[in-house]
Amino acid sequence: MSIEKQVDPGRRGLLVATCAAGGVAGLTTAGALVSTFAPSEKAKAAGSPVEVDISSLQPGNLLTTEWRGKPVWILKRTPEMMASLKGSEKKLADPDSKNHYNMAMPSYCEKASRSRKEHSEILVALGVCSHLGCSPNSRFEHGAQPSLPEDWTGGFLCPCHGSTFDLAGRVFMNKPAPQNLDVPPHMYLSDTKIIIGKDEKGEAT
Fold first, then answer.
1. Residue 3 located in a structural domain
2. What is the CATH number of the domain that holds 56?
3. Quick one: 22 and 71 in the same domain?
4. Do residues 96 and 168 share a domain?
5. Measured by CB atoms within 10 angstroms of the end CB, which terminus of the chain is less buried, N or C?
6. Rounded to two decimals, what is the model's pTM?
């Protein structure tokens, strides 16, 4: 004689609904885990070269973009800014960029301007201080200012520990930052377009 357990219809529906919900939750969780392990489009593009339009960049102005998660400055220097580079050389820790921070300065960049000869007025540099990785602020105005000397001729000031850099990203003597700002590989696609992270030799490694 077999005994069949009777399940209340209402309870049976509740059990079915609970199992179904559990299954959906399991699938949702699995989907979330798969999504977590799959690289996002942004992550895929993190190391890719970045193309920048500089057609609207005026002399004396700074444009900031991003490459590999770091700020990249593109500064179009005026003739006065270019002239100030020679005047600051005796006060710099490494005027010829013999030492580097995270990457050596590209061989096609001139030592004083730290830019390509065909566009010597344009500085392309990573806005990351070589001391502890803070991002310096632009201080293009001449003269004495808070945390700056009276004979200041323009450049960059790191707000974290006071390191100063000239308008070519070269660090001044006796500052916490030990090296100049990095100049990433870059090249001109035209007079108004720059690609950062790539040059004639290929993409940066």
1. no
2. 2.102.10.10
3. no
4. yes
5. N
6. 0.76
Residues 31 and 105 in one domain: no
Residue-wise pLDDT tens for the chain (205 aa)?
A: 444 444 444 444 444 444 444 444 443 333 333 333 344 455 445 679 999 999 999 999 999 999 999 999 999 999 999 999 998 899 999 999 999 999 999 999 999 999 999 999 999 999 999 999 999 999 999 999 999 999 999 999 999 999 999 999 999 999 999 999 999 999 999 999 999 999 999 999 8
Q: Is the residue at 94 inside a domain?
A: yes
- The closest alpha carbon to 67, from 165, 187, 196, 189, belongs to 196
What b-and-e string marks burial along 62-93, b requiring 16 or more CB atoms within 10 Å of the CB?
Answer: ebebebbeeebbbbbbbeebbebbeebeebbb
